[in-house]
Amino acid sequence: AGRPGTSVTFKVRQLGESEIRDITMVRGRVEGSLRNFWLFDVFECSDREIWFATRTGEIIKMDGPRDAPRYTRYESSDGLDMRGRRPRTELTETADGYLWATTASEGGLNQFDNSRWTVSRLSDIGGSDQNQSMSVDREGTLWVGGQGVLHAYRQGQWTVYRSPEVPIPDGTVIVHADRKGGLWIGGIGRG
Q: What is the Cβ-side half-sphere exposure of residue 41, based on CA atoms within 13 angstroms?
């Protein structure tokens, strides 16, 4: 731990890439209270903002210059739906600049348009609201792995896939789109 104003350097490697680079940040204070600062995901957007997903469902945006960063905290009062005692949150960004946040708990799929959060309940279209993983393929499709289902968001439309139409497990679906165009599907649980 260090005091606000001191620097910390992280070695970062983006999933699927071999290059390791340094990101140096100046420690600062996040306004408001955090119940438990335990990170589940850290994500750098295309506009260089760094996002942190915490154990308790808050999402923190760090932007501005690295030597004087600004922190903004988002929570349920800002429109996030991160239900559960410890919502294991994952973050990703689509080519249109939207930030997406999902949780393995009962929360919805959260979308940030750079000014506000909106929530989609994938259960409303026959999908799952317990979504463990997300990945964006090189064509821009957002893939979301849920409980026994695989969701695809392309050109503003959702498609829900189930077994046996797609070989996915009955339990938690884990998805990863690689840079060569492959879609990897795995699972936790049955199937």
A: 27
